Amino acid sequence: MSKQEELDQPTGSADPILEIRDLNVYFEMDRGRSRVIDDVDLDIRRGEIIGIVGESGSGKSMLASSLLDAVVEPGVTTGEVTYQSTDGESVDVLDLSEEELMEFRWEQISMVFQGALSSFNPTMAMREHFEETLEAHGYAVDSGMERAADLLSDLYLDPDRVLDSYPHELSGGMKQRALIALALVLEPEVLVMDEPTAALDLLMQRSIVSLLAEIRDKYDLTMVFITHDLPLVTKLADRIGVLYAFELVELADTESILREPTHPYTRALLNATPNLDAPLEEMRPIEGAAPDPVNVPAGCSYHERCPLATDKCERDPPSFDRISDTQEVACHHWEDIDEIPLTTEVDQ
Amino acid sequence: MSSDETVVSLSGVDVHFESESGGINPFRDSKTVRAVDDVDLEIAENDVIAIVGESGSGKTTLGKAAVGLQKPTNGTISYRGQDIWQAQKRFSNPEIPFSEIRRSLQIIHQDPESSLNPHKSVRSSLEQPLKKWQGNLGPEDREARILAMLEKVGMSPAHDYAERYPHQLSGGETQRVALIRALLMNPDVILADEAVSALDVSLRVEMMDLMLDLQDSFDTSYLFISHDLSNARYVAEHADGYLGVMYLGELVEFGPAKEVLQNPQHPYTKVLRWATPSLEITDETEPPVRKIDIPDPVDPPSGCRFHTRCPHATAHCRDAAPESRSTDVPEHRTACYRIDEHSEYWDAEPLEGAHIDR
């Protein structure tokens, strides 16, 4: 099977590299329990690029952190995150010791987090950052640095120039690409990125996205790209998951998300996103505001903002159901979804 | 729109910064950053002009120059015919006093939290401009005015929002307070510098709609600065306004927003279009630039500054800078040899990696 055919297989039958079950993250606060990831089930398939889209306060950064058991104290992560390594070994990520985690995080799953640009030590040249990482994990420095140089060139950087520079001598876009190269220098299987391009110009964001696609193919990586930017991630991802109020509300291949989104929130988000093509008068904001994690509405968490909501939505939380081979959605009324027209389709 | 009266006019404006790189070594040259280079721009009454560009393009500096917050190193900026910086000089006896110009040209920032005083309630932040500029209003009138404005921007119940402090507001609410505060000065022009960029995608349209709505009621013009072409399009096209594209200090293309977006003439404008992801399914293409990094503005390339990245650059582009010239469409101009069929450009040697592609 080609990679594309493999990825077109129904969810579940494809070879998962990460299996997430009943994942919950919460914080105990004076005001009550703040649930920032609520019962998420998700399989991430080997070799895919999965985009996770959510607005601020949707829990998307917590999802990224929990994949690596990196939720900061006093946050509590429960459920299962199972990693299937290439040699057939299963690792229960949430059960690893501190020491095992340190190893696991760079060598199996690596991460590029939001605001990570400041993670470079300003007094160290870029070369030392790479060497230090290789040494700390007991990798051969010479061959490791060759790989680093390859990665930097793959990201349209001049390796010698970048490696000899100090962080302040590089632009934001260069640092961000160097950070991606650093995250890949230990040959991990999975790269998790949380808003890896948010502080950059559009041209740099878009360029990085197209470079990431090339890197996935070249190094056979699995990528998890977490962002608020739906249009951007559609240019990269094979599948997209949409987070609303700390829950996964829809998961489908990118084409279905764009052409036939079945969750009312996904539709509203598409209709609210400024872009260059849709007719201006059709774009409209989403009414209301996203809920507070301490006080998520009963029933479907989107019902207060949803034009399709009924009594049932106020009462019963919808289950996350498979509605086709490639699409899962948590909505009682997904069959009536066309009552919310999709404005981006008007001129198609 | 161009027939309306011009409010602000920039002519041959340069803003150059000296960067002190020499430290204590007096023999080392200091370097000049040419943040804005020879820009002409006119803002009419009730106009919307959006300026887009990458970081380092000088778009914010241009915006600040246009509202009199940044003194140009060359060229003139006038407000209704009065040179702004002449008016500021002592004993210059200007036709329009500097304080009046200051009031007429307002700004809202990307990060509104930093522009609202954290120790002041919404009410007292909004009272300030009214007390200063509309002294004839009594306390009750002021109160009524503030509550009406809050109500108008959807911050209801208004008397509750009026008592809140900035930390009790969401990002979108803070930005709305900043907008009201600017509007209460009755300005002619508001510089909106990345005013919606920090908001969630689903809130941007709402904020921009509000800005457009209030433009109608307040007769103000906007100079809307953004790195995001989609936002710039939304505001400028809605208002039948203009779109300008900046690259390394120069305005490389300018015209009616719809025209610039549908029929971009400068290769850089086309690059920005590519960089703006659509919501359609398209095949992924390579970046249409030869280099993805923007050059250092301290040491910009010779000739056309885009020649180091342009997919169509020739030796002619490297050697000589193109003048801005009109395209076939009224009010649309661009600085690129490719719109001139008689240019030497067409006979010049393409640079490495570039193709003329007629």
Structure report:
The complex is a heterodimer of chains A (348) and B (358). With 348 residues, chain A is of the alpha/beta class. Chain A folds into two domains: 14-237, Rossmann fold; 260-345, no CATH class. In chain A, 32% of the residues lie in helices and 23% in strands. Chain A is built from twelve helices and twelve strands. Chain A has helices at residues 3-8, 60-67, 98-107, 126-136, 141-154, 159-163, 172-184, 202-219, 230-234, 254-259, 264-272, 311-315; strands at 16-29, 32-45, 49-53, 76-84, 90-92, 109-112, 190-194, 222-227, 239-244, 247-253, 321-324, 327-329. In chain A, strands 6-7-8-3-9-10-12-11 form an eight-stranded mixed sheet, sandwiched between helices. In chain A, strands 2-1-4-5 form a four-stranded antiparallel sheet. In chain A, helix 8 (202-219) links the parallel strand 7 and strand 8 (222-227). The two termini of chain A are 32 Å apart. In chain A, 47% of the residues are buried. By secondary structure, chain B is an alpha/beta fold. Chain B has two domains: 6-22 and 29-119 and 165-347, 3-Layer(aba) Sandwich (Rossmann fold), CATH 3.40.50; 121-164, no CATH class. In chain B, the strands form two sheets. In chain B, strands 6-7-8-3-9-10-12-11 form an eight-stranded mixed sheet, with helices on both faces. In chain B, helix 4 (122-133) packs parallel to helix 7 (171-183), helix 7 (171-183) packs parallel to helix 8 and helix 8 (201-218) runs parallel beside helix 9. The radius of gyration of chain B is 22 Å and the shape is globular. In chain B, 48% of the residues are buried. The interface between A and B is large, with 47 and 43 residues.
